[in-house]
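Worked example 2:
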Amino acid sequence: MPRHGKHRRPKQHWIARKLAVAGTGGAALALPLISATTAGATGTQPASLVKAAVEKATAAQPSVEKPAVAKASVEKAAAALTYSVVGGDTLSKIASLHSVSGGWQALYEANRSVIGSDPSVIRPGLKLSLGAAARAAAAKPAAQPATPVYANNLDGWIRQSLAIMAKHGIPGSYNGIHRNVMRESSGNPLAINNWDINARNGIPSKGLLQVIDPTFRAYHVPGTPMDSYDPVANITAACNYAAARYGSIDNVNGAY
């Protein structure tokens, strides 16, 4: 032996060297370096230490869902959001059965492109969305119906009067109103009768349907001006009076 010999570093066991860099799924496991001398000194078999270290490190790794399981879950969720129409179905029935938020209206809005313009007609076999699309449609504020705009002429006045009459349950038709207007005033909303008995009594007939002021006030319909020369107010009040006396303006074919 040389007089000035160097101390040699003890060699690591080959198992210890490999385990120091061993990885699971690409992530290195923090395993202890086990030398042959340490193992010998403690009397523990290296294989036992290796097994315990590997099990401990593996247990600490986060679990990852298998792709097949994840795919199955997605497909199941998608199927639950879709409904296939069968004979006898209606949107109302489907919405009620599946508790669609917003009812059949939301269901229709979510599937308008599939159903078409008529929500009352749905064909067997159609695939309807019941889930996210229906909920999104329900969350949208309902479109407010546009306020109708009526022309400022006889046609527009009659149509506006009919709309008001419908809200108040007053009967009458376009033709019935138009026929009486043309006889009474020829369509002039400022027409006034200054020669008949009413005129001589100081209450001349006025407007499109020639209504005297007391009758106008008695049968005036809320929502229209309190003005017997106003064409819509005049028509509506006259039709209200005719309904009370004759059943409808349609039944009036002469002076009334």
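Confidence is low (pLDDT under 50) at residues 1-7, 13-44, 66-79. The chain is about 50% helix and 5% strand.
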